């Protein structure tokens, strides 16, 4: 055969693409028949649907085939669906539907009866656009009689066993079944010592033994066994009983059958409690026969540990000696001295030995005791028994009460004297304290070492509890540890700790401040060298308190501002001086800040106070909030004398009107060449006021056509008028800014559009749309804003803001207050014809193209796919007969 023509090939590909859509359909699934269940048990029949259209949550209906027709049982969406003969069982919840997911439910029948045997149909109402697939599925339920029996064996003597740890015990149960089906039994032994049952061993329905992870090791070693004997009896045997074996035991039997799909189904389950087992643990008592003892240094310490137990048979004891510095110490804090393991192996130690005196006594001997041997001693005994797999099992463990051992030594005897070699009389004066060891006895050189700790107690007049603060301390190796209060000052060298001699320590504060006033004392610690060359603190002796205090007076600072010129006009220079006087401040220096309080109508400073210029204590000048770039050098602050400062402001303008003050801070020298702030002062106000004799300006916005269509040009005029003294155009200049509020009401923040300053420079904001702006001055008092190719987002309330500048007679340009116009609303409408012209043309063209394409496909299909070859016969040319002859 030759290749297919192109039209037929295209048609074949189209059919292949549409084939999956035709094959797709709803699928309803139920379990494979038959379902075998036992009379009196609960039956759960699942039903699910897939490959469906419509809503995600599907509805289900269940029916039962009875007497040649289906009887309605229950529905998920129709409460009146249930037939009368099932209504009572449905109302009592004996039969109910349980939804698992949107596409799956379960039919639950409790206390199944033989009459429930038969065929069940699960139906899903159609929600598909087309009828495809299956909308119901059936399953057969087979109900068999209950033939399973589970009992406790009669051979078992008692239902309650009380056993000693380590003995063996056996439990028995019987299980049998007589049913019409070929079933298998699954037997499991369980124990419960808490709220839930735990599995021990089981014989599965497939004839395999299985142990839980908890009993796996004992099962493999043979200590726990599962035996199936004749007469349908099952035995649980436990050797070497442990405390974990205590609890109630039961025999759990389940019946299983194989379905037509080859899978196992559990059809019922029964259990019987066989016995309650109580395990009496091995008793173990550990006693130290020595009471609290006191031993002199370099003597020997002798302690004995006696153990008693009721355990019989083969066992081994393990004894471990511990040492702790506190009676409440745990094993994690205690130190292991020596141990005697179950193989009679003793750990080695140079100063401690352990020996077994008899079968129950273990002796600990500590040679050449030291002060560090003072503490609490106790022993721990453990009983081990062998298992079948030659491993050892711990059955009991007990710890004795601790014994307090005190090792006495000849402590050194000494006294501590603290005196102030240098006491401050004023702030920032140095302070030096000396801590000295006096009348030292029993201080053998090389075995005794002294260290010092310095403490500070704040001076408080009230009865509040004062906490001593650690300034610095030394450890046994004379390493200095600085406290939080003095750490930073010690790093800067302001506080110095030193040891001047073997018996003398000193503390020096280079620059004493008011916060250092209070009581000081030192603590001398004696350290003794032990046999392992370690140092142990033996004694702490504190000194008497030394008070560091001096009387102080409150700082006083007075600042007076004086206006040097009584009258001046705009454009002249404003000049004022600040005179400072202080008391009780040692060698003060001053920093000065000039502030201005503008009228509340000043929009550039709504807060009222402006920081203009400052001069610090080192005579460094800084411009604070002075933002006038045209008058950067227009303000000057200088130091005339040590306590006098002068402020000048050149070419004053009307916007400079307000109250001017001097804010002065007094500084006194602190430690390390640093300056410390002492007190602040504020001067009297000096007022700058001007009489306005110039013109008064007004501004308004006008538009000949405030309503435009998209794409058109919008013209907005900002018109300025003046009243009062007329001015020439060359004596006036304006800064003009345009703003828009994008709403019908003035309830949004204004958006900056463009501005034209008095020098002719235009500034525009960045725009997101295709429209554009232009701003120009068309007359001395008129400014025009144009919006080219306007868009819908150009609508809103538009207004202009004008800042006039007037050329004063003194030859200085004066800035007038900013004025704003009332807004005008610009409305931008849409041209409906232009908006729909191109979409209509495009739609018409696409519709025409699709129609032509459809005609072409129809023509090709009829020409090549439906064409039949008909063999034409040549017609005879005969004349028609007349009707009368016919």
Descriptive notes:
It is found in: Membrane. Residues 1-25 form the signal peptide. The protein has five helices and 61 strands. The chain is mainly beta and 886 residues long. The chain has six domains: 23-144, Immunoglobulins (Immunoglobulin-like); 148-280, Immunoglobulins (Immunoglobulin-like); 284-408, Immunoglobulins (Immunoglobulin-like, Sandwich); 416-548, Immunoglobulin-like, CATH 2.60.40; 556-688, Immunoglobulin-like, CATH 2.60.40.10; 696-830, Immunoglobulin-like, CATH 2.60.40. The strands form twelve sheets. Strands 51, 53, 54, 55, 58, 59, 60 and 61 form an eight-stranded mixed sheet that branches. It has a six-stranded mixed sheet with strand order 11-19-18-13-14-15, with no helix packed on it. A hairpin with an 8-residue loop joins β30 (413-422) and β31. It is flat, with a radius of gyration of 54 Å. The two termini are 52 Å apart. Residues 14-23 and 868-886 have low confidence and may be disordered.
Question: Can you name the CATH architecture of the largest domain?
Answer: Sandwich
Which class of the largest domain in CATH terms? Mainly Beta
Provide the number of structural domains. 6
Task: Report the sheet with the most strands, covering strand number, pairing sense and barrel closure.
Answer: 8 strands, mixed
Strand content: over 45%
The rounded Rg comes to 54 Å
Tally of alpha and pi helices: 5
Report the span from N to C terminus.
52 Å
CATH topology of the largest domain: Immunoglobulin-like
> Helicity range of the residues?
under 10%
Poorly predicted regions: 14-23, 868-886
Query: How many strand segments?
Result: 61
Shape: flat
CATH superfamily of the largest domain: Immunoglobulins
Main location: membrane
Membrane topology: Single-pass membrane protein
Transmembrane segments: 838-859
Organism: Crocodylus porosus
């Amino acid at each position: 055969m030759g290749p297919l023509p192109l039209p037929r090939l295209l048609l074949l590909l189209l059919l292949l693409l549409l084939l999956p859509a035709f094959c797709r359909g709803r699928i309803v699934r139920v379990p494979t028949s038959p379902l075998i269940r036992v009379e009196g048990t609960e039956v759960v029949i699942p039903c699910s649907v897939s490959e469906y259209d419509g809503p995600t949550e599907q509805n289900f209906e269940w029916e039962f085939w009875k007497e040649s027709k289906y009887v309605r049982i229950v529905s998920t969406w129709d409460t009146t669906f249930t037939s009368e003969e099932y209504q009572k069982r449905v109302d009592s919840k004996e039969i109910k539907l349980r939804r698992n997911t949107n596409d799956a439910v379960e039919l639950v029948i409790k206390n199944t009866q033989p009459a429930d045997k038969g065929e069940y149909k699960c139906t899903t109402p159609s929600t598909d656009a087309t009828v495809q697939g299956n909308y119901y599925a059936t399953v057969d339920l087979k109900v068999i009689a209950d033939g399973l029996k589970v009992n406790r064996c009669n051979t078992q003597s008692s239902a309650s066993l009380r056993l000693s740890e380590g003995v063996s015990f056996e439990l028995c149960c019987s299980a049998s079944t007589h049913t019409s089906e070929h079933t298998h039994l699954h037997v499991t032994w369980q124990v419960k010592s808490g709220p839930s049952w735990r599995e021990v061993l089981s014989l599965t329905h497939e004839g395999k033994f299985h142990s839980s992870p908890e009993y796996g090791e004992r099962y493999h070693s043979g200590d726990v066994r599962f035996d199936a004997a004749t007469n349908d009896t099952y035995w649980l045997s436990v050797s070497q009983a442990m405390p974990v074996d205590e609890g109630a035991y039961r025999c759990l039997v389940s019946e299983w059958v194989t379905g037509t799909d080859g899978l196992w189904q559990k059809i019922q389950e029964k259990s019987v409690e066989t016995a309650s087992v109580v395990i009496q643990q091995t008793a173990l008592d550990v006693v130290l026969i020595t009471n609290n003892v006191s031993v002199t240094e370099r003597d020997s310490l002798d302690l004995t540990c006696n153990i008693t137990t009721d355990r019989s048979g083969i066992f081994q004891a393990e004894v471990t000696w511990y040492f702790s510095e506190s009676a409440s110490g745990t094993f994690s804090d205690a130190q292991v001295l020596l141990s005697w393991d179950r193989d009679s192996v003793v750990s080695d130690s140079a100063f401690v030995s352990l020996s077994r005196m008899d079968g129950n006594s273990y002796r600990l001997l500590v040679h050449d005791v030291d002060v560090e041997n003072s503490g609490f001693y106790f022993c721990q005994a453990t009983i081990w028994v062998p298992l079948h797999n030659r491993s050892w099992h711990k059955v009991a463990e007990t710890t004795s009460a601790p014994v307090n051992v005190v090792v006495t030594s000849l402590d050194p005897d000494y006294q501590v004297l603290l005196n102030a070699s240098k006491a401050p009389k004023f702030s920032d004066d140095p302070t030096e304290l000396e801590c000295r060891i006096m009348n030292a006895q029993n201080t053998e050189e090389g075995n005794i070492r002294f260290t010092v700790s310095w403490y500070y107690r704040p001076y408080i007049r009230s009865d509040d509890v004062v906490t001593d603060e650690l300034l610095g301390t030394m450890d046994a190796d004379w390493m200095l540890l600085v406290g939080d209060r003095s750490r930073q000052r010690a790093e800067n060298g302001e506080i110095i700790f030193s040891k001047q001699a073997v018996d003398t320590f000193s503390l020096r504060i280079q620059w004493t401040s008011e916060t250092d006033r209070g009581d000081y004392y030192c603590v001398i610690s004696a350290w003794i060298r032990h046999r392992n060359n370690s140092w142990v603190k033996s004694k702490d002796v504190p000194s008497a308190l030394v008070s560091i205090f001096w009387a102080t007076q409150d700082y006083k600072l007075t600042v007076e501002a004086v206006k040097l010129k009584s009258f001046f006009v705009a454009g002249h220079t404003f000049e004022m001086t600040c005179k400072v006087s202080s008391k009780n401040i040692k060698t003060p220096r001053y920093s000065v800040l000039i502030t201005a309080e503008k009228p509340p109508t000043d929009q550039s400073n709504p807060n009222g106070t402006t920081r203009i210029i400052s001069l610090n204590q080192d005579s460094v000048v800084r411009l604070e909030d002075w933002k006038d770039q045209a008058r950067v050098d227009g303000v000057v602050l200088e130091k005339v004398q040590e306590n006098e400062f002068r402020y000048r402001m050149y070419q004053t303008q009307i916007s400079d009107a307000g109250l001017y003050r001097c804010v002065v801070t007094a500084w006194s020298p602190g430690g390390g060449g640093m300056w410390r702030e002492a007190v602040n002062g504020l001067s009297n106000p000096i007022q700058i006021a001007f009489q306005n004799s110039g013109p008064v300006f007004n501004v308004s916005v006008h538009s000949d056509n405030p309503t435009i269509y998209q794409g058109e040009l919008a013209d907005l005029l900002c018109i300025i008028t003046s009243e009062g003294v007329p001015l020439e155009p060359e004596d006036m200049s304006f800064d003009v800014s345009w703003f828009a509020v994008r709403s019908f009401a003035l309830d949004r923040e204004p958006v900056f559009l463009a501005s034209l300053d008095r020098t002719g420079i235009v500034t525009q904001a960045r725009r997101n749309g295709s429209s554009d702006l232009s701003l120009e001055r068309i007359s001395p008092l008129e400014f025009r804003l144009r919006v080219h190719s306007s868009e819908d987002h150009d609508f809103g309330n538009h207004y202009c803001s004008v800042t006039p500048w007037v050329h004063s007679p003194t030859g200085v340009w004066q800035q007038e207050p900013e004025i704003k116009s009332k807004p005008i609303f610009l409305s931008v409408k849409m041209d409906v014809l232009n908006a729909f012209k191109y979409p209509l043309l495009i739609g018409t063209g696409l519709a025409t193209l699709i129609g032509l394409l459809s005609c072409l496909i129809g023509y090709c299909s009829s020409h090549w796919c439906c064409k039949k070859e008909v063999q034409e016969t040549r017609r005879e040319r005969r004349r028609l007969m007349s009707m009368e002859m016919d």
